Amino acid sequence: MIEEEDKTEDQQEPQEAEEAPEETPAEEPAAEEAPAEEAPAEEPEAESTEDSAAEADPDASGSPDDDLDWKTRKRLERSRQSGEAGPQRSPEERQSDRSEQRASDAVLRRRHRQSRRNRKGEPRTGTPVAEHQPNPVKTRQGVVISDAADKTITVRIDIARRHPTYEKIVRRSRTLSAHDESNEAGPGDVVRIIETRPISKSKRWRLVEVVEKAK
């Protein structure tokens, strides 16, 4: 019996020896899987590098202020800056400071408006000075065709103009009623009349002189 047990032990030892090489390959994948499990531990380092890069260059990451115009962005930057705290003041002192500030602003406004009023009449650079010329008094020369009414003569004004399209001399005439205070002009006389204030319903002209008497 002892010999049989020894034989069985000797038979079991080679089996265990044969089984030992089979167990080693099973342990090698476990060793290979260890680095794979450690790989996620390196991801936080990558995130930390991204955070440091974002802190180093804040313009690289899109901020909501980039969509605003420059004036609004500047106002927001100025509002975010914290100035030094001033001394504690009472409401009466604050009101007096506001009143003084308003008074100084009013003085500046008055000076600016006064300077604008003074410059209003001055000619600008490069602008020619406009000369004020009163309306010239209209004068006409014509022939008296009637002196039937008292202190009134009817004068015919002849107009000769070249037609703009046909280049033909076109003659026209119109009649004006003029005031003759002394009734010195007669039919056929060449007279000069001048525009004047309304004397009657139809008279807006006045006799100046008789240029040529009728023959």
Summarize the structure.
With 215 residues, the protein is α+β, with helices and mostly antiparallel strands.
Structural summary, described in words:
- The protein has four helices and five strands.
- It is an alpha+beta fold.
- The protein has a domain at 139-212: Nucleic acid-binding proteins (OB fold (Dihydrolipoamide Acetyltransferase, E2P)).
- It has a five-stranded mixed beta barrel.
Supply the key terms.
alpha+beta; OB fold (Dihydrolipoamide Acetyltransferase, E2P); 4 helices; single chain; five-stranded mixed beta barrel; 215 residues; 5 strands
CATH topology title of one domain: OB fold (Dihydrolipoamide Acetyltransferase, E2P)
Strand order across the largest sheet: 1-2-3-5-4
Number of helical runs? 4
Uncertain ranges: 20-27
Largest sheet: number of strands, sense, barrel closure: 5 strands, mixed, barrel
Helix content: 40-55%
Tell me the number of strands. Answer: 5
Per-chain topology:
Elements: H1 2-38, H2 43-56, H3 70-80, H4 91-120, E1 139-146, E2 152-162, E3 169-179, E4 190-195, E5 203-212
Parallel strand pairs: 3-5
Antiparallel strand pairs: 1-2, 1-4, 2-3, 4-5
